[in-house]
Every structure is written in structure tokens, then in C-alpha cells.
Amino acid sequence: MRFISLAPLAVAVSRAGGLGFIGAGENVSDLDNQLQHAKTLLTESPVTRAADGVLPIGVGIINWGADLETALNALKRNIPAAVWLFAPKRNADLVLWANNIREITHRRTKIWIQIGTVADALEIAEVCDPDVLVVQGMDAGGHGLERTASIVSLLPEISDVLQNAGKGDIKLVAAGGIVEGRGVAAALALGSQGVAIGTRFLASREVNITTGYQADVLRSKDGSVSTVRTKVYDTLRGTTGWPGRYGGRGIINESFHDAENGQVTEENRKKYQEALERGDQGWGEHGRLTAYAGTGVGLVKKVQHAWQILEEIRNDVQRIQSQTSNTKSKL
Known about the structure:
It is a single chain. By secondary structure, the chain is α/β, with parallel strands linked by helices. It is about 45% helix and about 15% strand. The strands form two sheets. Strands 1-2-3-4-5-7-8 form a seven-stranded parallel β-sheet. Helix 2 runs parallel beside helix 3 (about 70-75), helix 3 (about 70-75) packs parallel to helix 4 and helix 7 crosses helix 13 (about 305-330). The longest helix is centred in the C-terminal third of the chain and has 25 residues, at about 305-330. The protein is globular and about 50 Å long.
């Protein structure tokens, strides 16, 4: 949710009982402003469960391009409840980030680190000792590993490996393809302690998104075939710093079709720039602009406030768990 989930959405999610994150991405130059904006919003309407001196929101950082010193300066002025680290050039880079964040915030900020393989989970657990591992499966929208599994198999295997390595105290948060209560209930049954939801909030009223992008999300169905993980959109957007094993899952459009049919990059890029000039008309099935979204996009059907989304999900989870409990009692 890079540059899409900003202070208003992060605060709205936390007010509704979740933990909202500011998607700072790889450019943390505006992070100080976003944290100050969140502080102002929270002053106007506080979250009662917040710890003293800690903002009840998180910050998401894409490490391959982020400047550590700039981030630390912002985090020192306004301490968030959590920092979510993702996509370093090398896993070892995360040690420096984790240690410095803990020092600058006096360990009041929890360290979340996103991974997508069993090997990465074990390595990060051993060298960084994070508070939370975000286990991202193949269904996730936006950027993730090109080679990974769904959380159905990935999360239980990671849980077992961490238990065997004496790292079972690290909390696991499931991510990828979860957009409503059934997905949340399934992730909890798999052993996660929580879930991360992105695509569903593309249709929230507080999200920083264009009308065309949001309409593209709402019209898309059958995310297994209407989305794809690819490097095409990064190439056309000029976002070329991602480590080689990552790709971005987005809604398929003419830009992708042309790339698949062998259209030279420069011609495709020219058409992409022309689409940008058309504004909201540049998105859509026959559009060209990037709309990152996960495979669960077909379950996103209407625009709602963040609190409505969370309330609906919680009610569905409670209903499903109650039904499951009743079924068990009859066996």
C-alpha cells in the first residue's frame, strides 16, 4: 500500500480496532509529515488503548531504497507502535534497521518483517528476532516474491520450523488474498495470530487512490486470471530498484498484453505516458495504467469506510467461528 495508505487510512483502521499502517515505501522523505498528520488526527480523536508517547499506528518501509537516517529522524519525533520492514537488498540489511529502530524508540516500536519463504523466515528470525513475521503468500497484491506459495501451505510450515528452532514466540501475521471474514477465519485456523489486509482497503473512503484505480478494482473479477505478478508495470513506471526476485501483482490491462505480445519497451512506455495524461480514463480493462491488487479482488464489491470494512469482517469471523464450534460439538 505504498503511498496509498497514508495517515487518514492508518488512523481510521486503528480507531476501528485494527492497527493501521502508513505505507511510506522506499521514499521516506515525507514520513515525518505523515506521522505528524497522524498525530494531529489522533489528537482530535484519540485511540483509548494507545500507550503513552506512542502513536497507535504502524509504518511500512521498503528497505531497498529507503534512507535509514531520514526514517530514524521521523521515528524519533513521533514513535509508532510498529515498523514493518520489507524487501531489503540483502536480509542482513534488516539487522541494522531493526537494531537502530529499537534503539531510537527505546524498544517501544515493535519490529515487523515481511517474508515469503521458509528459509527467509528462519534466517530473519535468527538474525533480527522480530516481534512479528508477516507471512506473505502468492495471492498478495502489489510486490512480493515471484516464487512463493499460498499461505495455506506456507504459514503452517513456517510455524513448524520456527517452533523447532526455538523461535515459536514470534507472532505470525498472514498476508495475501485475504479480503473478508472467511479468509481471516481460515488464516487464524492455519495458526496465524493476525492478518494483513491490503486490497480490500483499496475500496475504502479514506484511501489515497484515484477514482480510475478504484473503479478498476471494483470492476475486476476472478483474480486468479485477471491479475498477474510481473515486472512489466515496474518497467513502465520507472520503478527499477526492486531486487530481482520480486514482482508486482496487478490487474491485467493493455500494457501487459502488449508486453506479452513482444511490443518493444519504449513504445509501450510511450503509450503508458499518454494514458497518464488521460487521468482516470487511463485505467480499466482496455486502459494502460497500473492497478496493483491481489487475487481476492473479485471479492471487493463496494466502497465503504474503514470502520465498516473492519466491522463486517469481525462479524463474519465471529459467525464462522461460532458455526465451526457448533459443528464440532455435534461430531
